[in-house]
Amino acid sequence: MHLVIHRAPFLSLLVVAAAALAPRAAAQAVEDQSAPLTERERAVHLLSRFAYGARPGEIDRVLAMGVDAWLDAQFEPAQLADAALQGRLSEFESLKFTAADLEGVYRRPLRPDATDEERREYNRKTRIPRTELLNSVVLRAVASERQLLEVMSDFWRNHLNVSYTKGRQIDTFLTPYERDVVQANALGSFPEMLAASAHHPAMLIYLDNYLSRRPPTNAELNKVKRAAEARTGSRAQAIQAVALAEQNGLNENYARELLELHTLGVDNGYSQRDVVALAEALTGWSFDRGNKCSFRFRNDMHQHGDRRVLGRRFSDNSSDGRNQGEAILAYLGAHKGTAEFIATKLVRYLVNDEPPAALVAEVAKTYARSDGDVRAMLRTIVASEDFWARRNFRAKFKTPWEFVVSALRATGARVDDPEELLRRLTDMGQPLYHCDDPTGWYDTAYAWLDPGVLAQRWQFALDLAEGRIKGVTLPEDLFDDIPEGAPPRSWQVHLTEKVVPGGAGTRTRDALTSLMDEYLVDARVPDLHRVGPQLLGMLIGSPEFQRQ
Amino acid sequence: MTLASSRREFLRRAGITAAAAGIPGALLASRAAAAPPPGARSIVCIYQRGGCDALNLLVPYEDKDYLAARPTLSMQLAGGLVDLDGDFALHPSLRGLMPFWESKQLAPIVCVGSPHPTRSHFAAQDYMEYAALAMPSMRQGWLNRYLAISAGEEKVDFRSMAMQEILPRSLRGDFPVLAVPTKMDNRRGTLTLERFERFYGKDENDGMGGTPEPAGAGAGDAMDVRPDENAAVVMSGKQTLETLKRFQEITSAGRESRVRYPETSFGGRMRSIAKVLKAGVGLEVAGIDYGGWDHHIQEGGVEGDFANKLQDLGGTVAALAEDLGPQLDDVLILVMTEFGRTVRENGNNGTDHGRGGLMLALGGGVRGGQVHGDWRGLKDGVLADGRDLSVTTDFRDVMAACLQGTFDFKPPRDFFPDYKPGKFRLFS
Questions:
Q1: Total structural domains in chain B?
Q2: Contact assignment for A450 to B189 by CB distance below 8 Å
Q3: Fewer Cβ atoms within 10 Å of its own Cβ: the N or the C terminal residue of chain B?
Q4: What number is the average pLDDT over the span B164-169?
């Protein structure tokens, strides 16, 4: 902070000089393509990949403590003080509850003769867990000191996607899923996270595995028929009931996604027969819909039999078929294909949309060596030359989520009520925890850079800077680090440094200058607090800020 | 393995890399000499997300099995069904479409669907909109493929748009299609666009001008900006500005139509599409989604949620058709969904995911006034898995027919990977 203040008058002089030097500087920029990142750029880079961007003053803090020390601290999130955030999260009571508690507290069934008042209260209460979960995810991403944990949580949230769009039944389970599957393992062991998701009712519901069962026997079908006949007295209805019962059977949905999206990756050495065999092995993986709301293996629904998956034989135990699925899961967690797939996705997320093959191979090796330890893989990435190469500096296009969170951080905004933010994310096409597709949200420019989408970001940028986002407040001292008496033409430099610490190109600088020109024509006494928000909004909507 | 490279691979296999690069050689090969001039004809593609219940949209009201299968959901002529041909009748909410049946411009297509048996919304929509079942890595929608392949050298102003925040999958891909952010359509939105012209508009340099911020943040740091690193974002921003501004110009110019659209979000969005179509700026493909057709519970018959949605959809389509006037002959309105629903109603007065569905084609020169597709009745023996309408027409047959019938564009081999054209005639 101090440095900035002292340097300010000096900077403003340089801006004028820069205009004159521009052509030569451009030539120099091209030559500098291979130049290593400066210390400051390294801090910027790290904070934009291993965190959701820098908050005001954060780059200087990272530089002061050293990039390595910052990383070490991030790798041990539990040791990192985060009291302010924890205080705010403690307001959300539902976050601590098990699924069974959530059902008991927020979903206690109504009596049939409940009054309208009671029904309204019931409806209000059922919405609380979802609101609190979504709010907590936003607050943590914006305000947590444990930024790496948050950045990685979002990665796994998408990798092992579950969604509210599945319908009411899944609601109760997403709070514990986020806490016990995502957060608990985000910097831990991937195979453990995979196993946690496989046993979680949220995943079992989301990908329908809890419905997957062996085909009904003839005896069972006859029983259905007799029961239906007795109930309805109609033969036609009974035949219909049998037809419906015959429909009940194997559901491949989870088995397919487990191979395609969670472990090996699409078309990576498995066949349709592997999908079916895996689905059969996982029949009976269900959950207790009674009091416990937790995983339950139903041996009576399991399709017994030894089977081959991925060329390996997995035997079955007729009295307890659960171990077969467990063994396959463990095998998948240790599979070379899984290591490659996870490594590819991690490098794509943290380094470049086109992941460098050599680095992917390194990370896959680390996976194999460390049994899928996430921290070890992250260390491999951050220790690589690739990660720090200039060509990867600001090479990622921010997803709407990354854009919104980083804008809030860059401005030091306080979020009291994220409702409006969640709506904006929906408008930008990325509603939180509402990704219907099991792929999760994509993290590449390809998925997000449609013509038209930037318009929503621009609107958000201006609204944020002008204080028009409900529930979000910008700090009053936002412009205080610009020294009194600094010439108005230097204001944009200060703000650029704050919002786009990686630096802005001519196009952006010229745009800000022209905005300032227009302002200065009319303004008799230039007022930073009037034009500042305009400059700020433009910077958040600038091409540079769309990248990280 | 990346999406980008698989797309290139697809284009290469289909022999159309040249076209994708903007070279018109392949265009000439695939667009027949008699093809209409670009932009003279159009498709408006409406996607009903959630799996619309075909059987209650186009009702086989004479079929006893229909009545038996749907104790609470079935409808009859006496209840207001709109008879078409003695076998099928339109849902009462679709009465507004009847004039177009009579003028032989409305063509329902029964039992159309996917060769893939999935009943997952996600997978079924994916398969249908990318229309590349044999190539799961394909991430360029079927309509975008058409746009990319047929793109000529002549700059056409406004070939395609989706009237919603994010493109439907059918329009995603290499060819830039504008997703119109509907909430920007106001004064504040216009001001925002004007403001950002400074960043993204104007100069011809396309964001290539990157000079370093010499002072940057650290004393003496060379904060360079690589020449091309903003290019993709700036390009997208430019396209956003140009097309959105053009869109606003087009939609604010000209007389307001006297045709009454439903006072709904869908009706309003369709009115905008009509304006662009009528402005004659070369719009070939417009996409728009209508969500909420997943009626597992409380679907209703003559009244209820399904009926209300149909009222909105049908009223909007009828308004568009009327609004277009004689131009309707050049505009194909195509309504599709990922699958139909179970023949029998379930225990919650709803229906579950099925197989064969329904498409509606209106205008654009279709052979209307007749029901297309192969209808095999509702007997247990002919139902798919004993519960759903069988798929007797591959959705790709319809897509191919629409591209050919509308644009005289014959999809090249592998346009739909691993697809063998079936016998299906929708246009005369």
A1: 1
A2: no
A3: C
A4: 86
Between CA B14 and CA B417 the distance in angstroms is: 9
- CB B52 within 8 Å of CB B175: no
Distance, CA of B416 to CA of B414 (rounded, Å): 5
Say what the pLDDT of residue B156 is.
Answer: 66
Task: Choose among B195, B211, B218: nearest Cβ to A25.
Answer: B211
Residue A19: per-residue pLDDT: 35
Q: What are the residues whose beta carbons fall under 8 Å from the beta carbon of A349, sequence distance 6 or more?
A: A155, A443
Task: Tell me if chain B has a CB within 8 Å of the CB of A505.
Answer: yes
Instruction: Find the domain containing A423 and state its range.
Output: 2-70+397-546
Domain closes at, from A247, A263, A292: A247
User: A-chain residues within 8 Å CB-CB of B193?
Assistant: 455, 458
Report pTM.
0.80
- B239 interaction partners in chain A (CB closer than 8 Å): 451-452
A544 vs B179, more confident: A544
Closest to A472 measured CA to CA, from A426, A419, A534, A539:
A419
Q: How many domains is chain A built from?
A: 2
The boundaries of the domain holding residue B117 are 3-184+259-407
User: Does the residue B252 lie in any domain?
Assistant: no
Q: Which of A226, A247, A268 is the last residue of a domain?
A: A247
Question: What gap in Å lies between CA B136 and CA B3, rounded to an integer?
Answer: 10
Most A CBs within 10 Å, among B196, B234, B235, B380, to test the A interface: B196
Q: Does A374 map to a domain?
A: no
Instruction: Report yes or no: A99 and A294 within 8 Å, Cβ to Cβ.
Output: yes
User: How many beta-carbon pairs under 8 angstroms link A with B?
Assistant: 215
pLDDT in tens, A251-264: 888 998 899 899 99
Closest-CA residue of chain A to B381: A243
Minimal-distance CA residue of chain B relative to A490:
B215
Residue B135 sits in a domain of what CATH number? 3.40.720
pLDDT digits (tens, 9 = 90+) for B327-382: 999 999 999 999 999 999 877 788 888 999 999 999 999 999 999 999 999 998 89
The pLDDT of residue A16 is: 33
